[in-house]
Design goal:
It is globular and about 65 Å long. The two termini are about 30 Å apart. It is α/β, with parallel strands linked by helices. It has an eight-stranded mixed β-sheet with strand order 3-4-2-1-5-7-8-6, sandwiched between helices. It has a five-stranded mixed β-sheet with strand order 10-9-11-12-13. It has two domains: about 260 residues, 3-Layer(aba) Sandwich (Carbamate kinase), CATH 3.40.1160; about 80 residues, Archaeosine Trna-guanine Transglycosylase, Chain: A, domain 4. Helix 2 crosses helix 4 and helix 6 runs parallel beside helix 7. Bound molecules: glutamic acid.
Length: about 350
């Protein structure tokens, strides 16, 4: 059985005036229903809330950008999910809404709760439709865009592949407006093509651009999951990608052979929430580079900066403060400070909870 995450961008779901493009939505749902009927497990990461909410209401006085985003997303999300619900129901398929925030990925308990919720949904053949909870995530801790959210969901749920649908055919080896530019069909992890990507390629309503899609696709592929960037405005795109033999143009990221453990995946997500810095000596750095599966012992720690509690995420840095990785602390900063440089004490970070960048 296959498990596929499908990220659908605002530019695919809405028309230029912000109204929902129901014809396109229903065509995508026709295709997903067919895949679902053949046993494919699907998770949708859907944008489009803010754009479709904006179109719904005429406001009397001008709103600041945070208030506008909160208001539009609150209205638009109901419109969006209702439409998905009705369209899937035509096929006897049930979908459900999962709204999340970046912070939910930093707390192990919340992370496991949302994972559990989606597992139960999949087990019961319900299609999760995920979006950021834009009504409450309005500060610097929000997702860069739904591409970032789709990457977190894909790795958390150990999907077989992620399909990112936007309004371009894939990544070009030049500006898409240049007649000589072509779509790059396959990108391997050791290639760096970020110079090709023109910064201005961004839809008018959504937040994500091609640079962020590229960065995210590489990150997901490095975790052993294949990623496709394709044009959601093309007819029958999903079935062509999944069933056709290279019949539709797209960019594919070749996945790494290895996959990383789910605990390490979670630790890697939490890096933006680290509460302290652990300075380690050169010996530990050497060991990390050579063996990789090492725990952080007190004997290799030279300094601890910051205030953290047991189970908080902390950063590992070299003597110049250069970040090596992140991990979950077995001690509070107060307690840990007492053991700096000491032997024969339970590690500060166990290797299962250590993520090296
Ligand atoms: N969560 C936003 C919405 O539903 C989209 C964010 C993005 O454009 O990536 O409108």
């Amino acid at each position: 059985m296959k498990r596929i995450a499908i990220k659908i961008g605002t530019s695919v779901l809405t028309r230029a005036d912000g109204t929902l493009n129901v014809t396109r939505m229903s065509s995508l749902i026709d295709q997903m229903a067919e895949l679902h009927g053949c046993g494919t497990e699907i998770i949708i990461i859907s944008s489009g809330a803010v754009a479709s909410g904006r179109n719904e209401i005429k406001i009397e006085k001008k709103l600041d950008s945070v208030s506008a985003r909160q208001l539009y997303s609150a209205i638009g999300q109901t419109k969006l999910i209702n439409r998905y619900y009705e369209l899937f129901r035509n096929y006897g398929i049930i979908c459900g809404q999962v709204l999340t925030t970046k912070e939910n990925f930093s707390s192990r308990v919340h992370y496991l709760n949302q994972k559990h919720c989606m597992m139960v949904m999949l087990e019961n053949k319900v299609i999760p439709i995920v979006n950021e909870n834009d009504t409450i995530s309005v500060d610097e801790l929000m997702f860069t865009d739904n591409d970032e959210l789709s990457a977190l969901i894909t790795t958390m749920m150990k999907m077989d592949s992620l399909i990112i649908l936007s309004d371009v055919d894939g990544i070009y080896n030049g500006a898409p407006t240049d007649p000589n530019a072509d779509i790059i069909q396959e990108i391997t992890l050791d290639e760096n093509i970020s110079n090709y990507i023109v910064k201005s390629i961004q839809s008018s309503f959504g937040r994500g651009g091609m640079q962020s899609k590229y960065r995210i696709a590489k990150e997901v592929a490095s975790k052993g999951i294949s990623v496709i960037i394709a044009n959601g405005q093309r007819e029958n795109i999903l079935l062509s990608l999944l069933r056709g033999k290279n019949t539709v143009i797209h960019t594919k990221f070749k996945p790494a052979k290895k996959s990383i453990s789910s605990v390490k995946t979670w630790v890697s997500y939490s890096k933006d929430f680290a509460k302290g810095d652990i300075y380690i000596n050169d010996g530990v750095i050497k060991a990390i580079k050579e063996i990789r599966t090492v725990s952080i012992l007190f004997v290799g720690i030279v300094r601890i900066v910051g205030n953290f509690e047991k189970d908080d995420i902390i950063r590992i840095v070299d003597k110049n403060g250069f970040k090596i990785g992140v991990g979950k602390s077995n001690y509070s900063s107060k307690e840990a400070a007492k053991y700096i440089g000491k032997h024969s004490i339970k590690p500060l970070i166990h290797y299962n909870y250590l993520y090296i960048e």
